[in-house]
Amino acid sequence: MRGFSYERPATPAEAAQAAMATEGAKFIAGGTNLVDLMKLQIEAPSHLIDVTGLGLDTIEDTPEGGLRIGAMVRNTDLAAHPRVRRDYALLTRALVAGASGQLRNKATTAGNLLQRTRCPYFYDTDQPCNKRVPGSGCPAVAGFSRQLGIVGTSDACIATHPSDMAIAMRALDAVVETVTATGETRAIPIADFHRLPGDTPENETDLAEGELITAVVLPAPPGGVHLYHKARDRASYAFALVSVGVIVQPDGSGRVAMGGVAPKPWRVEAAEAALPEGARAVTEAMFADARPTAQNAFKLPLAERALALLLQKART
């Protein structure tokens, strides 16, 4: 790990200003992903800005009936919050499915949204990777791709986004609140927050340089039955091959978001109209533009079966 300087700003705006003022600066909170990347020399920040003391660790009701979740709220605390468990159970189920208990005690809401991919070529610094070194190539396209994306990918990158929490946030229509170095605030719908790779897979989110996430806002509860299923290679502490989050209403309508299949939480609102027809109709629409490899084509039937399982559970 290379040397770096360190500071603890007093306000979110000061943190954003500090990030703009120092080239190569990075925010750090739980550090559950960033520190690992620093040890591997994939990330080498010149300056760390500790944002854990900014007071962004509360969960509050909004006047609209929703919930504002501070960016530094720990995953464990968020999963156990009474209103999340009662009104946004999909979020609790997704959080508990992610990582280990020790990691959930450290990981934060904002950090979870900003997790880097677990593509093996991204983590192997002896291999080219367009996401790690733009323009260097993507050996995953013709290489080991079992864990990687089948939809929303490009010739430059087929990595997937690893977060379970973000799948629930996408189904719940969350909004990401931020502050910039000039003190301006933004509200970014989560549908627009993560970017598809295209020709620039190194640009993973809509955040501008120095922009700091301050909170994630959930709209008023959508009601319905909330379920989450994560298919993975072992029972715990593994990233999803395919994960599915659903909210099913009594009339059979609802919402569907999937993980482990794309570079961002994958939701196709138009496909949800087919929910009363069953899982096959929904997944055919969700994956109409899929480009699986020979190694990960199994994700198409796996996603359909996982969704069918949840729809069956929702009816019982």
From TrEMBL:
InterPro entries attached to this UniProt entry: CO_DH_flav_C, CO_DH_flav_C_dom_sf, Diverse_Substr_Oxidored, FAD-bd_PCMH, FAD-bd_PCMH-like_sf, FAD-bd_PCMH_sub1, FAD-bd_PCMH_sub2, Mopterin_DH_FAD-bd
An example Gene Ontology molecular-function term: FAD binding
Extent of the signal sequence: none
Record-linked PROSITE patterns: FAD_PCMH
Keyword field: FAD, Flavoprotein
Pfam name, any one: CO_deh_flav_C
Domain FAD-binding PCMH-type: 1-223
The protein's name in its UniProt record: Xanthine dehydrogenase family protein subunit M
Upper taxonomic lineage: Bacteria, Pseudomonadati, Pseudomonadota, Alphaproteobacteria, Rhodobacterales
